[in-house]
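Tokens in:
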């Protein structure tokens, strides 16, 4: 995944940019970067943040990153922002999203006169550099941004920093958000709405799908109006979004609370306590507990001083180890108890299975699992939400393959995704048995959509339903 932030200010933008980007650290774990424009022109810094927090890596760069206009990012993929010089002038660019037709676009760029791309490790092309190449095929930055929106299959939200201001372009279907904040003498653009609140900004506007604006310290000008169709990612509310953020008027923490209430509505289990897997499962669990009357408790505590995020290491085995190390059991709340545990989702199942075994080893009598979303059935073609290279990394797809073989039709997958079908029930039972849960009940998609509370046609639920 990743997050982006930009500032246009009459005064120094450096600290606002530094803290605004840092507030997106939950969205990525690989690289961070900032670019500013000031009296010395463009200045840029990029660091690896796999094992060190963003602030630590960039704290020493702030004196060099002095300017009044700036953009930055947290990236799980390519290094960025990039500095570009072209017939459109000099600019910096940063992006968040995914390009599915990258090779096709690279070949088209060669045919249109683009000479070369910088090659990264393993022969990969920097997606942000490719976006810049698309933009540079047109006569203006706005025409180039519109062209990129049309040509890219997947999604791409873009910030472009010029000597005069910042262009912000939300992806064509609004799968990722862009919020604009305002304070005296400054505007900012942000993936996460909460990232600018403590910096003194207030909500100014939220870009619509495909909308392009031009931001200066004095104003925000709409250069291309919002499109009609929107497909914002529903998984932002379930997991990736920070609790204090709001997308399309719906706060993440409150949505998770409502989600837990709806989970309890269909549940007949009688646990002694309800708990959430830290951190994203906690609000779901509080909503469940308050609605059901079953006490909420924390049978394990997350140890965060050295490893704040379980998915920080690049290696899956290392991530599993860190996830296990940082959950410290509270035996007094576990031994002899029937526990109902809510996690945001089940992907591979490895970590939740190990957490369940930890609870049994600590004396739990029963462990009932309630994921806060439906079974994940499809890899996301729109956003880099996972490092998985195959849909067989999903526990559901491995089970379906074992049951049905290699040739599985879309119709059959749809039946497995239907919570009222026999195939669905049998698949869930295999997951339950394989991971050692006392019982397993996933959230229903219709209840999840109800918890979000915006029109279903505006939500992307592809990873659960397979419907684009």
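Residues out:
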């Amino acid at each position: 995944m990743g997050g982006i932030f930009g500032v246009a200010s009459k005064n120094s933008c450096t600290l606002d940019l530094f803290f605004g980007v840092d507030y997106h650290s939950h969205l990525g774990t690989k690289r961070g970067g900032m670019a500013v424009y000031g009296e010395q022109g463009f200045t840029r810094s990029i660091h690896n943040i796999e094992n060190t927090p963003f602030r630590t890596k960039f704290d020493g760069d702030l004196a060099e990153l002095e300017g009044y206009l700036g953009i930055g990012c947290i990236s799980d993929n390519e290094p960025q922002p990039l500095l570009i010089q072209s017939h459109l002038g000099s600019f910096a660019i940063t992006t968040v999203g995914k390009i599915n037709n990258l090779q096709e676009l690279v070949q088209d760029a060669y045919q249109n006169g683009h000479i070369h791309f910088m090659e990264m490790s393993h022969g990969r092309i920097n997606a942000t550099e490719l976006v810049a190449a698309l933009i540079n095929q047109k006569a203006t930055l706005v025409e180039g941004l519109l062209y990129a929106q049309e040509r890219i299959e997947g999604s791409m939200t873009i910030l472009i920093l010029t000597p005069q201001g910042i262009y912000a372009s939300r992806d064509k279907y609004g799968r990722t958000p862009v919020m604009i904040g305002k304070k005296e003498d400054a505007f900012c653009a942000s993936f996460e709405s909460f990232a600018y609140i403590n910096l003194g900004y207030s909500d100014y506007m939220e870009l619509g799908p495909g909308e392009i604006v031009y931001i200066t310290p004095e104003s925000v000008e709409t250069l291309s109006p919002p499109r009609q169709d929107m497909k914002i990612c529903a998984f932002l509310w379930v997991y990736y979004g920070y609790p204090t953020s709001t997308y399309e008027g719906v706060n993440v923490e409150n949505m998770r609370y409502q989600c837990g209430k709806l989970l309890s509505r269909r549940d007949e289990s009688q646990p002694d306590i309800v708990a959430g897997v830290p951190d994203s499962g906690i609000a779901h669990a509080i909503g469940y507990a308050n609605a059901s009357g079953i006490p909420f408790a924390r049978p394990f505590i997350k140890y965060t001083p050295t490893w704040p995020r379980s998915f920080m290491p690049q290696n899956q085995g290392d991530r599993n180890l860190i996830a296990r190390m940082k959950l410290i059991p509270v035996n007094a709340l576990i031994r002899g108890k029937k526990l109902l545990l809510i996690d945001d989702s089940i992907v591979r199942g490895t970590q939740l299975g190990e957490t369940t075994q930890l609870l049994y080893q600590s004396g739990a009598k029963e462990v009932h699992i309630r994921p806060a979303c439906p079974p994940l059935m499809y890899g996301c073609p729109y956003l880099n939400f996972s490092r998985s290279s195959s849909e067989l990394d999903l526990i559901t797809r491995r089970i379906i393959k074992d049951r049905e073989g290699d040739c599985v039709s879309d119709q059959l997958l749809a039946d497995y995704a239907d919570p009222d079908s026999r195939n669905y029930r049998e698949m869930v039972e295999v997951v339950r048995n394989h991971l050692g849960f006392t019982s397993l009940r996933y959230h229903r998609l219709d209840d999840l959509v109800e918890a979000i509370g915006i029109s279903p046609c505006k939500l992307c639920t592809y990873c659960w339903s397979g419907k684009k």
